[in-house]
Amino acid sequence: LINLSFIMRNDFVLLAGLVVAAMSACTKTEGLVDHQAEATVSFKPLTAKVTKADYITNESIDLAPSNFLFNVYAWYNTGLGNFVSDDAVEYMSNVLVKYDSTIDDGTTDGNGAWKPGETYYWPKNGTLTFDAYAPSSASADGTFSSTAANGLEFKNYTVKGLDDQYDLLYSSRTYNKTTSTNGTNSTYDGVDIVFNHALSAIEVKVKTTDDYNGYIKLKNVSVLNAYNKGTFNQNYKEGYAEASVPSAWTGHEGNVSYELFNDNAGVILTSDALASVKNAIVLPQKFDHQTGKVSIKVDYSIKHGKKWLDQTSTFDLEGLYDQDLNVINEWEIGKRYIYTIKFALEKIYFAPSVNPWTDVTMGGIVVH
């Protein structure tokens, strides 16, 4: 018997990367200004650590200077409140931001900041509203844009295969900033931009309920029938965050499998989780596909004598329960799903018994 248990971790913000802009209020210009020169728009993510191996852990994305590149949109707006007016002007359009060690970030160590490829200054009137996505290289996998009314869109985005995966991020819209000193971050004055995970993540653990003396070998674990292409929309309505519907993926396409573990010889399972099963970043989606439901397939072998008997079990993910007994029928944006596959073997015992004789009484035999 195999028992597939399921845990859903509600990590809407596994990453809480904080991006801030540091400068004095200035007019917008491509050149220098008089007494307020060098008050340029720059960005400073909070320091955090993550590596390729744990890209779906609870740690933040890698914000090391050489690794973290992101793109920014900014809207110049004459109104106030959490909205962007119809006459908003695009102030920054898909601008690449990268680290510059020569910038004084305003902290005691003055240790550099992330800088747009072009020079931007604060406008004297009105406000700036910011959208952003990361990493910058993600734009090669879809068509990225933002509008004042609706926010970010990633059109026809394709999730990479396991060997090339990365954590696609989108920012919550940061509204109506006028200077670098009206941010809310207590450790650094600047414009706060918080990134969110745009995709879903899965983690698979495989174990046994007992050691079983080496009687089970795991050979393959695969996720089947997953969509890997779609369009993300932030879904703001007329520039309002309060009036928006939740960010969502639509236009799902593709049918891919993710091979999370493969060993032709097989690996003996124990009661400890098998650490070598890969994790995956996947497209948020419902499981009831027309071309086949999303499922997990497990190939394994059971020992009998000196030989091994190959077995396969497939589990539809639709209808599984999380640890709070909620039915889960989809992968949702920003959530990491932990599936635990447990092998339980039942020993063979015998209970011998003997059926009683059935008596047949024959007719009398007459001796003459």
Q: Roughly what is the average pLDDT, rounded to an integer? A: 78
Order of helices and strands: EEEEEEEEEEEEEEEEEEEEEEEE
Strand content bin: 35-45%
Total helices: the number is 0
Distance between the termini: 68 Å
Alpha carbon gyration radius? 29 Å
Shape designation: elongated
Stretches where pLDDT falls below 50 for ≥5 residues?
1-40, 44-60, 183-189
Largest sheet: 8 strands, antiparallel
Describe what this molecule looks like in 3D.
This protein has 368 residues and is mainly beta. The protein is built from no helices and 24 strands. Helices cover 0% and strands 41% of the residues. The strands form six sheets. Strands 2, 3, 4, 5, 6, 9, 10 and 11 form an eight-stranded antiparallel beta sheet that branches. β7 and β8 (151-158) form a beta hairpin.
Quick tags:
single chain, 368 residues, mainly beta, 8-stranded antiparallel sheet, 0% helix
In short:
With 368 residues, the chain is mainly beta. It has no helices and 24 strands.
